[in-house]
Specification:
Order of helices and strands: HEEHHHHH
Strand content: 5-15%
Distance between the termini: 31 Å
Binding site for substrate: 88-89
Strand order of the largest sheet: 1-2
Largest sheet: 2 strands, antiparallel
Number of strands: 2
Number of domains: 2
Structural class: mainly alpha
Number of helices: 6
Family: Belongs to the protein-tyrosine phosphatase family. Non-receptor class myotubularin subfamily.
GO biological process, one term: phosphatidylinositol dephosphorylation
Protein name: MTMRA protein
Radius of gyration: 21 Å
InterPro entries: Myotubularin, Myotubularin-like_Pase_dom, Prot-tyrosine_phosphatase-like
Length: 129
């Protein structure tokens, strides 16, 4: 994948050949990417959707098992589909534009309540929270 970094963390139980084979199943060949590690061993792993729904369960299970084996406490993997609970990039950009317009076009004075409700309507604070 041209959008992945040159080097990234991979659970040791996944062989290079497995990674190459699995990469073709992910949209944009974006393999799971180990993004962050907590001192207790928990990790944040980001991955693209799998193209072939029939292969998804097998590949998911193989990768999740490798991650579990890499965890010091052998904790199970918790998965969350962020596409369903986070705004997309277009929504974030639109909120940022509304925020900029509000800050430039709406002076903050005694009409504070209107300004604050306008700020809330941009959704910017919700998105950055």
């Amino acid at each position: 994948s041209t959008s992945l970094p040159e080097y990234f963390v991979v659970p040791s139980s996944l062989a290079d050949q497995d990674l190459k084979l699995f990469s073709y199943s992910f949209i944009g060949r974006r393999m799971p990417l180990w993004s962050w590690n907590h001192p207790n061993g928990s990790a944040l792993v980001r991955m693209a959707n799998i193209k072939d729904v029939l292969q998804q369960r097998r590949i998911d299970q193989r990768i999740c098992n490798a991650i579990t084996r890499s965890h010091p406490l052998r904790s199970d993997v918790y998965k969350s589909d962020l596409d369903k609970c986070l705004p997309n990039i277009q929504e974030i950009q639109a909120a940022h534009i509304k925020l900029k317009q509000l800050c430039v076009n709406e002076p903050f004075d005694e009409n504070e309540e209107k300004w604050l409700s306008s700020l809330e309507n941009t959704h910017w604070l919700e998105y950055i929270r």
